[in-house]
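ARCHIVE CARD
Drawer: 12
Card no.: 0347
Subject: one protein chain, sequence and derived structure
Cross-reference: see card 0346
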Amino acid sequence: MFSDLEDKDLGVHIEMSDDGRYSATGIGTISFERESGKPFILKEVMHVPGLKKNLIYVVMLDDKGYDVVFSKGKAFLCSKTNGEARKIGVRVRNLYQLHVDGCAAMAGKAEGLVSWDDGELWHRRLGHLHHGALKILQQITIGLPKGTLAQSDQCKGCTLGKFLKATFHKKDSRTTTILERIHTDVCGPFLVASTVKHRYYVIFVDDFSRKCWIFFMQKKSETYSKFCEFKAVVEKELGKKVKALRSDNGGEYISDEFKDFCKAEGIQRELIAPHNPQQNEVAKRKNRTIVGATWAMLHDQGLPLHLWVEACNTTVYVQNHCLHRILGMSTPEEAYSGKKPNLSHLRIFGANVYMHVMKDARKKLELTAEVGIFLGYTDTPHNYHVYLQDNGKTIV
């Protein structure tokens, strides 16, 4: 956060309420870039690496020529010289939090214990969807709050999970009907195996609707069987046939078994040229957005990495219900099924969940609720996957 920092021993020790003592190792200037108005600049800020939270003393702001006003759960900074006032923070339980980076709001995992603005709340519920798409989604879906959804300058999950060195843009082509072309790609191996030993996943993306399906695998050689499973589901659901399949030249796609099956079913193979992943950019870009949102959700809530399968599944589910650039004012789910998606049942991945314990499963005076972690959605609407940390099981 420092725009300039001088490393030196200040001989200053910060003493906390837990009797911990932390040394200041430098001093510098911090400039908080705001969406509107001038930057908020703090000079002579001490760098104390041992602290886990950034702290600011109100008395120091007073010494620097500012009045601080606390009113209705908000903090305002007022200049004593020109009277200019700006909102700088919000109340989070019994503390006021400086509103400069959307990541400090992690006061607790339980959704009800965190004082997020509606914008940040739905940004996380929708798998860290960017705020521009969130505003449009308000107009074309049901269940989102009305009015302007506030957003912070920076999101911890997006910074840790989606940070990119550069972007690559290509013009998309698009077919005219559903299942006319399917894009596919395998992602993995993941360094951490899932709870059921999965290390890969394969996706299938419909070129027309851009709806995505994801299947998890222990080995890449399972790709053929997953394609057969996908094909049977979508063709029976729509009464149409898959006409073309676009993929790279990976061994999982060019086996004799795979080739013979596609030939027998009349499926045209579109194998891209070697070392030209841009020709399969629809699937490649989809993989990048899935992995980015997955890491954002896991890091945002501090969850173990072996839950990446559940996070990927949730990412695909919510992205199918969100805007897609090539579809304009529509979502993949609406383009595929013709139905406007309802988002009112969405929750933040990794949030604490309290589940009622049925009477026949408990004795008198035992707890009537059990605490778990929300891990996503099932194929049945409004049913949820919940992870029980005590026994490592996932239930519905």
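Annotation on reverse: Residues 2-117 form one domain. The chain has three domains: 2-117, 182-337, 352-395.
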